[in-house]
Amino acid sequence: MESEWDPLRALGAVTAVCLLLWAAWGVGCTVYVYLLPQVRRGAPWLRAHGAWAVVTGATSGIGRAYAHELARRGLNIVLISRNLSKLKLEAEEIERLHGRVTRVIQADFTGGLEIYEAIETGLKDLEIGVLVNNVGMLYTKKPSKLLDCENVAKRLSDLINCNIMSVAQMTAIVLPQMVSRSKGIIINVSSILGKKPNPLFSAYSASKAFVRSFSQAVGAEYFAEGVLVQTVNPCLVESNMTAGTKYQMAVMNSEDYARQALDTLGLTSQTSGCLSHAVQSFLLAVFQPNWFSLSRWGIKLSYLLLKPSN
Ligand SMILES: NC(=O)c1ccc[n+]([C@@H]2O[C@H](COP(=O)([O-])OP(=O)(O)OC[C@H]3O[C@@H](n4cnc5c(N)ncnc54)[C@H](OP(=O)(O)O)[C@@H]3O)[C@@H](O)[C@H]2O)c1
Ligand SMILES: *[C@@H]1O[C@H](CO)[C@@H](O)[C@H](O)[C@H]1NC(C)=O
Ligand SMILES: *[C@@H]1O[C@H](CO)[C@@H](O)[C@H](O)[C@H]1NC(C)=O
Ligand SMILES: *[C@@H]1O[C@H](CO)[C@@H](O)[C@H](O)[C@H]1NC(C)=O
């Protein structure tokens, strides 16, 4: 008579099994993507997509690290950013260290449609296998409410052009030849801040959400035509953007970051880039749910946590 069917108990058992399966799936995916060297695609696979890689914002931080790592894996590199002397210096460094050919294109991505003609011309005759949409900016160094930064109109226009327009336009320039060869990889650098709305970084975090959403949709559109799209969501990586942060111990070396993030190519279309950032991202989602981070107390806590230390 103890074995009488109890609907509540059955419901509990089903829920427990579902939770266990969900957790096992998460752990399994994490191990597969970050911890199993055997499943990695390797440099020959990367080179088979085309001889050249294009990196926007390539002279410092994450973009610079991607450029070096892609060259080390045997691709020629096109570097794009604002400062010509920095570009030339970095290009020479890549040629010297990795023995690849480079090309530089000077462009300021805070500009509008007018800057892309020169970029298109600069890329015309190249077989581009990999595009890294990396360039991006914050609109203030300090976390602040929208109206608390100077010259809001100009800053918003710069941010939207640099973080959103650049990604869409660069993709539109490079995609046709990838589709015609049925081969190509597009990497969009988003951010952990793009995973949900973030008060005190509102426009930045929304611009990164665009990157993620756009990447996923375009990735689905062109998957059947051989183009692979990956969105990378870093937490803190060593760069000028994070130079002032008080959480220096959480900041990852940019070369290690780019190497590990490139190792996940072909294994997943969404990645935190490395195991430690995947763990941080998971913890943040659990302990910073929207109902809290968007509440009055959540914003107070953010101010406290993100306030510069000096
Ligand atoms: N660092 C992090 O912890 C972190 C975390 C999450 C996401 N991200 C994202 O990762 C990407 C790279 O960030 P980062 O920290 O490596 O940046 P960074 O160190 O500030 O480097 C920015 C790069 O972009 C170029 N650049 C900046 N503004 C430009 C513009 N208007 N036009 C053309 N080039 C420009 C810079 O060169 P010039 O000065 O010569 O133009 C430089 O090469 C960004 O999209 C950022 O949002 C970074
Ligand atoms: C370009 O970078 C160099 C070296 O970092 C710097 O000295 C120079 O002022 C920069 N030029 C511009 C126009 O920002
Ligand atoms: C990311 O990748 C997709 C796929 O090609 C591309 O269309 C998009 O412009 C890129 N950038 C963003 C922000 O998604
Ligand atoms: C920060 O910018 C300076 C000047 O542009 C550059 O020389 C330096 O390498 C950058 N730092 C990082 C960590 O990328």
Task: Please provide a written account of the structure.
- With 310 residues, the chain is an alpha/beta fold.
- The chain has a single domain, classed as NAD(P)-binding Rossmann-like Domain (Rossmann fold).
- The protein is built from eleven helices and seven strands.
- The chain has a seven-stranded parallel sheet, sandwiched between helices.
- The longest helix is centred in the middle third of the chain and has 30 residues.
- The protein is globular, with a radius of gyration of 21 Å.
- Bound molecules: NADP nicotinamide-adenine-dinucleotide phosphate (NAP) and 2-acetamido-2-deoxy-beta-D-glucopyranose (NAG) (3 copies).
- NADP nicotinamide-adenine-dinucleotide phosphate (NAP) binds next to helix 3.
Helices and strands, with pairings:
Blueprint: H1 7-35, H2 42-47, E1 52-56, H3 61-72, E2 76-81, H4 84-98, E3 102-106, H5 116-123, E4 128-133, H6 152-181, E5 184-189, H7 202-222, E6 227-232, H8 254-263, E7 270-271, H9 275-287, H10 290-293, H11 296-306
Parallel strand pairs: 1-2, 1-4, 2-3, 4-5, 5-6, 6-7
Helix pairs in contact: 3-4, 3-8, 6-7
